[in-house]
Amino acid sequence: MDGSFPLRVTGAMAAALALAPVLSSGAQAQSASPLRQGFLTEMTSSVRQYSTPDNAVRFILDRSGRRAALVQFEGDPEVHVLRPVAGANGDEVYRSDAGDVQLRVTPHGGVTVYTRAIRTGAAVSEEGVAAPLAPTAATVAVYQTRLRELQAQAQRRLGRPLAFTAPATPPANATGLIIDAAARASDSIEALPRGVSRVQFVLGDRAGVGVRGDTLIIQVAPALGYAGRPSSASIRTVAHAAQGPER
Question: What is the pTM of this model?
């Protein structure tokens, strides 16, 4: 192990509360994982795979959460958190945290997808039931190794040293989410100001991201699943803002 990745973060919960003013609000609560078999069946039936007629766009839509939906497009490692708003004719319109419309669902279950390549939308067909989208728990050894790999990846992309700090032995339900948050940070690292030399992952009751001094702070809420970590777009936006006005 090299010494560039300190895995010791003491008082993570206290730190999260103390840093709350600098954090950009993220996702709200999803429903807790149901324990009864009936609820499990209902949850699974709310997770479906869809595709456009030409199969150019394929994705899993997980609507088992009460306040947010999750979508993962084939070929994209990021699980996106979408918020529903009421649309015309009883439709539900799902927007990303950047405000972009990504899906429209009719009262009868018809789904239209919107992407950068399909600005006007394309109807999709259901392919079948899929497994719920949830972070995969990791052993402490795998968790620590994966974070070191992501730190090294971020350093290569940034072209300079950068330290990741995180709880050394987080709760089991936090390992996968912190790994995913680190991957999202690594994806967005090019926007990081030169004065920021550390990315700190802390635990809290909501997702958030902010910059304080030389540290990019990413707060995750394990109880919320993927809705409990900021997206790569949110991290990029905060990193850009921290650079200040262009000279």
Answer: 0.81
Tens digit of pLDDT per residue, the chain (247 long)?
Answer: 333 344 433 333 334 434 445 565 543 333 344 444 443 334 446 899 999 999 999 999 999 887 899 999 999 999 999 999 998 989 999 999 888 999 999 999 899 999 988 989 999 999 999 999 999 999 999 999 999 999 999 999 999 999 999 999 999 999 999 999 999 999 998 889 889 999 999 999 999 999 999 999 999 999 999 999 999 999 999 998 888 665 4
Helix, coil or strand: residue 239: helix
153 token code pair: 């990846």
Calculate helix-pair angle for 232-242, 172-187, nearest 10 degrees: 60
